[in-house]
Amino acid sequence: ADRNILVDDPKRKYFGDLDDVVHKIQRGKVSKAHQIYFALYQAVTGNEGYEDIFREYSRDFFDLIIIDECHRGSAAADSAWREVLAYFDSATHIGLTATPKETNTVSNIDYFGQPIYTYSLKQGIEDGFLAPYKVVRFTIDKDAEGWRPVDGFTDKYGNLIPDREYNQKDYDRNLILKQRTKLVARKITEFLKETDRYAKTIVFCIDIDHAERMRQELMNLNADLVAKDSRYVMRITGDEKAGKMQLDNFMDEEETYPVIATTSKLLTTGVDIPTCKFIVLDANIGSMTEFKQIIGRGTLISEDYGKMFFTIMDFRNVTRHFADPEFDGEPVQVGTFGEEDNPADAVVLPADEDILVDEANEDGDPWEDIDDTGGEIEDGEVKRFYVDNVEV
Predict the structure, then answer these.
(1) What is the mean pLDDT of the chain?
(2) Cβ–Cβ under 8 Å, residues 333 and 112
(3) Three-class SS of residue 362?
(4) Is it the case that residue 266 has pLDDT exceeding 60?
């Protein structure tokens, strides 16, 4: 797999008492005295400072290799991950994914062949194995109508805001409307107060800066419960050690805290949270793969916890993807790749690392140059504007 959570969680849950049998390959340490091995691609290909330690094992050492979330790096023909699989070519390779990837540059089918077994979300819900969901959509006036500053309008730091119309794709990327964040936080809080204030909740945000601002607003609106335990609202992102340390507690059915987790990318995949009753979408999600992964965070049933369905609160019209036949359809191969082809490598996140700024939006607009640190920008061109006094 490509993230620690994808190997550490099943290793702990299902093999916790089998240390003699199970081993995680890490920090350049090679062990050949076990029967089951867990590993990150980054740990065996040299991305963690150890060069290709997978070659310390003979090519026929493994009989079976399971690739979790195989729509990621292993689907790209020229990725470093594929090199590992090619080295152990005598083993049986089984790819697991809820979101098979078929594009002009990346193909699961090209490598793994046609799926030998598929099971749709719809079928899982109908069979009672997965939780059904209800959707609550909010349309914010500035999202629907856009916002254009008057001539000479400056942000809270005195920076002149360029005169153009701003819309939903700008908000929380290069234009921060504080009142919009407060409104979203207020609607989340109102919903929890009307239902269950201790319902495990994930709020998906644009980036880390947005996740932090959302955390602060939610703390302000839930000060009574924060006073009882500061973990009531936490930011769980790749750069936040305190939040990441609480991830296991957030996933644990026996633990009350944290209750609300704000995040951007870290919780989109590989995190099993049976108690998650509430998913909030305040990020622009153009990728069907990412959308499916996010929805999957709420689909586990927990009868002991009383969780038989979950609610999705959508502030960005992301749930329009439910109407797309691709959402619950069979994977269809778009391209065929051979040895002479050079498809672009899949985007690889370092293990357990969140991205500070989302990938390009669905129209392909570049956002790489956006300052993502938040706060006042003293030198150079202003990339983000912080506006406190625009009502929404």
Answers:
(1) 79
(2) no
(3) coil
(4) yes
User: What 8-state DSSP symbol labels residue 73?
Assistant: G
Cα torsion angle, 376, 169, 296, 194, sign: positive
Q: Say which DSSP state 77 is in.
A: T
- Going from the C-alpha of 210 to that of each of 204, 272, 349, the distances in angstroms are 9, 24, 19
Give residue-wise pLDDT tens across range 129-175: 989 888 989 989 999 999 999 999 999 999 999 999 999 999 999 99
Q: Are the C-beta atoms of 285 and 320 separated by less than 8 Å?
A: no
Which residues are CB-contacts of 312 (< 8 A; sequence separation ≥ 6)? 133, 134, 135, 136, 279, 280, 281, 295, 298, 319
User: To which residue do tokens 């391209």 refer?
Assistant: 335
Beta carbons within 10 angstroms of residue 82's beta carbon: 18
Q: Is the dihedral angle over the CA atoms 69, 73, 74, 80 positive or is it negative?
A: negative
pLDDT at 346 over 60: no
Q: Distance between CA 206 and CA 185 in Å, rounded? A: 14
Looking at residue 42, its pLDDT comes to: 77
pLDDT at 212: 95
Count of C-beta atoms within a 10 Å radius of residue 53: 19
Count of CA atoms in the C-beta half-sphere (13 A) of 270 = 23
Burial class for 254, CB neighbours closer than 10 Å (0-12, 13-18, 19+): exposed
Domains of the chain: 4-118 (3.40.50.300), 123-328 (3.40.50.300)
Q: What is the pLDDT of residues 66-117, one digit of tens each?
A: 988 777 665 454 566 778 888 999 999 998 887 777 766 667 777 788 888 8
Give the full edge-to-edge strand order of the sheet including 233-235.
133-137, 310-314, 276-281, 200-204, 260-263, 233-235
Read out DSSP for 330-360?
---------TT--PPPPP-PPTT---SS---
> What are the angstrom distances between the C-alpha of 379 and each of 366, 371, 382, 384?
22, 11, 8, 12
Q: What is the dihedral of CA 219, 136, 265, 39, to 10 degrees?
A: 110
Alpha-carbon dihedral 15, 11, 16, 18, rounded to 10 degrees: 50
SS3 213: helix
